[in-house]
Amino acid sequence: MIVAKFGGSSLANAEQFKKVKQIISNNKDRNLIVVSALGKADDQPMKLTDQLIKLSEANSLADKRIVFQQIKNRFNELMSQLEINLDLDNEFNDLMNNLSYDELVSRGEYLTALVLARFLDVEMIDAKDFLMINQGIVDYHLSQNKLQQLIKKNQRYIIPGFYGINLNDQIELLPRGGGDTTGSIVANLVDANKYENWTDTNGLLMADPNLIKNPVSISNLSYQELQELSYLGTKVFNDEAIEPVKQKNIPLVILNTNHPEHLGTTISNQTKANLNNLRIKGMTCNQHQVVFRIYHYQLSKRYDLVIKMLSYLKNLNLDYTFEPASFDSINVYIKKTSNSIKIKNDLRQVIGFEKVEMEQNVSIVTVVSEQFKQQPTLVGSLIEALNDSDIKVKGLRQFSDDLKFSFEVEDKDYHLVFEKLYNNINKKVV
Ligand code: ASP
Questions:
Q1: Same structural domain for residues 323 and 384?
Q2: What strands lie across the sheet with 157-160, from one edge to the other?
């Protein structure tokens, strides 16, 4: 059995619905189809989820009516273009009633699922009837029992993503982008052979296409590599959605609804050599970082100071990372903030470190690959790629997980670093 999830861009308008229908009917094993709410397209400036959020935030009844009418028109137009007849009046009227925020926003995937189910002439299974989520924690056991009772063998069903039901019988949303997570959970619950995630790129690209012209797409990746890339900010796939399929070794395939013939990217625990022979799997960049380089005599033994520092950083409520740089020093990384001078002074005076240096406007370019383990020379090739350039490398970091290598450079240089790494490493190995 295949679980296939279609994102908002795959369901943005009638033209996309037709592509989705074709893809689904091309494989009889695509039985459980998970959907996001209607997305953005050239003729659709807003995601349905954002329209519903706008509806929930409207201050006056008049404003509410305007957004409500836009949503209703969008569906009526879609259904007329798809030539389907479906009476959604009650569902629309509910949008103007006092639904909870989560329930109102969840109606995006709910209505989208209803329309697709009618268009394909199959049944819909409502996520509220099986997906037990309580404050973000999924009850797999109970959800599995419930889902098993709802599905019949070899039948096809449409399932709305992004929400479930909590212990108080209230609809609970997953975080934004949660349709990927629903798909992955459903694949886990039914022990699917494959989880297909249909989106609008040819799988995962090795680098941001805004930085590198036509970057190659990565044919295969391990779960761990994908997790690293997602943590580091690659947006195609939601990082929370990896774990449920990883737990059961279900291959995840990221595919393009607009080019279904493209093989996309397969994520599994088998890291075969990449079809393109690429030794690096992805590159990401965190710009505008502030680095605090902290020194203290025998710092690695001074747990008291480290604990004090961590609780200070936690209270700042900023995202930060830190790591030991030597026996006597630690680096702390924070996204650019207007508070940086105060933080530097506090680290020195309140916490009591001997010396604190601060660097601003730093970009951290990270290369992800499982090949670091098998090919120790890879790091050398990366560093060599930046030779003979004016790029000032401020720091190099190899991580103990053997999956990543980072360069700290000035913000103004990150684009060039991307180009040099991408072009040189590819040239050498293809
Ligand atoms: N519709 C939701 C969002 O826009 C969930 C999803 O698309 O996965 O975040």
A1: yes
A2: 123-124, 157-160, 30-35, 2-6, 194-199, 252-256, 265-268, 220-222
